[in-house]
Q: What sequence folds into this?
């Protein structure tokens, strides 16, 4: 077992979401690795209201029990894989809200991105890269982008092309390396 903990964060709570299948695929591949311990974190299990903290998250003075629980969860990880849909050329509102709740818990950690959408969700990843930079999250170059046209059957059943396997391995390797290096900085 590794001393690195990485969360695969499922960034959609929409009923009938395609993201669950994508996150399960990523998580299954991650679990086969030995470089880190991976855990699937489903935002549906963390019902955060639209940001309701009176003080900015940079102060770390959380009032709500839901915020404290979310902060403890995120603080326990060394890295993240954000699985995001692309809605209106960006990430989902629920994922952006969950990210915005916290600050220090994200700092000096690493992230990778997996997206899906009609154009593979690439624009959602670009927005997440900017958000992560502001939160001092180092993001790796390799990403996975799944098309609703070619990686899903009838836009509903996830059936990714095998060409994504090599990219996934590169993503995991980059993320584990960066997460380990940043952990050394935080310790």
A:
């Amino acid at each position: 077992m590794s001393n690195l903990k990485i969360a695969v964060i499922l960034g959609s709570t929409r009923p009938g979401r395609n993201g669950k299948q994508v996150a399960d695929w990523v998580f299954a591949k991650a679990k086969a690795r030995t470089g880190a311990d991976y855990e699937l974190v489903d935002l549906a299990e963390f019902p955060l209201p639209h940001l309701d903290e009176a003080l900015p998250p940079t102060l770390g003075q959380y009032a709500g029990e839901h915020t404290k629980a979310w902060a403890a969860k995120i603080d326990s990880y060394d890295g993240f894989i954000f699985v995001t849909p692309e809605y209106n050329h960006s990430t989902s509102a629920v994922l952006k809200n969950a990210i915005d709740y916290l600050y220090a818990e994200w700092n000096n950690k690493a992230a990778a991105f997996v997206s899906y959408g009609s154009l593979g969700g690439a624009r959602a990843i670009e927005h997440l890269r900017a958000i992560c930079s502001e939160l001092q999250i180092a993001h790796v170059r390799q990403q996975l982008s799944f098309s609703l046209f070619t990686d899903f059957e009838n836009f509903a059943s996830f059936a990714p092309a095998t060409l994504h396997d090599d990219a996934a391995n590169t993503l995991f390797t980059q993320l584990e390396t960066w997460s380990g290096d940043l952990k050394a900085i935080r310790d």
Observations:
- Residues 58 and 104 are 7 Å apart (CA to CA).
- The chain has five helices and seven strands.
